[in-house]
């Protein structure tokens, strides 16, 4: 069976990774040693190759340092993905990078569980600090 990967371009692969998105705001943490888990069950974006919508649940878990994520700004940030052409893998890694940049957590995990398409369900998980490959 012939591979169709030639139809995907570097432009598809990079799509959405540098697009401007709303800032994630923070507030000063008053406590130490506790974890925060935020579940976002209405994540949507666009496949950069097909233009079809992608749906999933994004979960952000982190151990706050000096700052915590402000949820309203996080909601606007995630909503900005709605019309953004970006692959699942890039979205999860970009969300992690932006969360880390915003609040500098001790550690963080972003998990994307994307709805079934073509008989396959995809889950992508990214960690801070980054795991060595």
Layout of helices and strands:
Layout: H1 10-14, E1 26-28, E2 36-46, E3 53-63, E4 67-69, H2 71-79, H3 88-103, E5 107-117, E6 120-128
Antiparallel strand pairs: 1-4, 2-3, 3-5, 5-6
Structural descriptors:
3 helices, globular, GTP Cyclohydrolase I, domain 2, two-stranded antiparallel ribbon, 6 strands, single chain, 133 residues, alpha+beta, 4-stranded antiparallel beta sheet
Short description:
The protein is an alpha+beta fold. It is 23% helix and 36% strand.
Tertiary shape: globular
Give the number of domains. 1
Residue-averaged pLDDT: 92
Helix/strand/pairing category: alpha+beta
Beta strand count: 6
What is the helix fraction of residues, given as a range? 10-25%
Distance from first to last alpha carbon: 31 Å
At the first level of CATH, what is the class?
Answer: Alpha Beta
CATH architecture: 2-Layer Sandwich
Sheet-strand content, in percent, reads 35-45%
Write a structural description.
This protein has 133 residues and is of the alpha+beta class. The protein has one domain (23-128): 2-Layer Sandwich (GTP Cyclohydrolase I, domain 2). Helices cover 23% and strands 36% of the residues. It has three helices and six strands, in the order αββββααββ. It has helices at 10-14, 71-79, 88-103; strands at residues 26-28, 36-46, 53-63, 67-69, 107-117, 120-128. Strands 2-3-5-6 form a four-stranded antiparallel beta sheet, covered by helices on one side. It has a two-stranded antiparallel ribbon with strand order 1-4. The model has no long low-confidence stretch (mean pLDDT 92).
